[in-house]
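Thread: Newbie trying to understand structure tokens

Hi all, I'm a second-year student working on a class project, and my supervisor (Dr. K.) asked me to get a predicted structure for one chain before our next meeting. I've only ever worked with sequences, so writing a 3D structure as a token string is new to me. If someone could post the tokens and maybe explain what I'm looking at, I'd be very grateful. Here's the chain:
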Amino acid sequence: MDNIINRIIEIDKKAAQIKAALEIGKRLVREDAEKRSKIKSVSDVVDYVFDYYSPYLRDAKKEFFNVILLDSGNKPIKNLEISKGGLETSVVDIREIVRESSKEGAASLILVHNHPSGEVEPSGEDIRVTKRIVEACSLIGVRVLDHVILGKN
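---
Reply by user tm_fold:
Sure, no problem. This is what the structure looks like when written as tokens:
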């Protein structure tokens, strides 16, 4: 009986080590994304989102909505998690996006969210929310540069 308990404890320890190693790997990839000096093109957006968000959101079981705030030189200044929802939706508080953009002095932003289903096509609701965010942000002089949806691939 003691052998079985000891074996279970060792397996738990090994699992914890593997989880820790994976988390360290995710953080290293995220740090590489944060070192980028500017986002100059669509491929820069894709690379940044892939490196910063994909390790955490690609396999998430819930939908997360995030915003990347950029300065006037298109350098990321802050990444914000705006909401965490259910399997198919998350409630996006547009006032929070406007408030944080204004508070941080953002010149532009990029919207990022995941689809737990793995599908990357925007839903009708995704399109409506994006239009509302673009309209609200334009009132304070902040441009929405892109809206990226993360799926399985």
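A couple of things are worth pointing out once you decode it. Residues 110 and 137 are 11 Å apart (CA to CA). The beta strands are 64-70, 76-84, 108-114, 143-150. Feel free to ask follow-ups in this thread.
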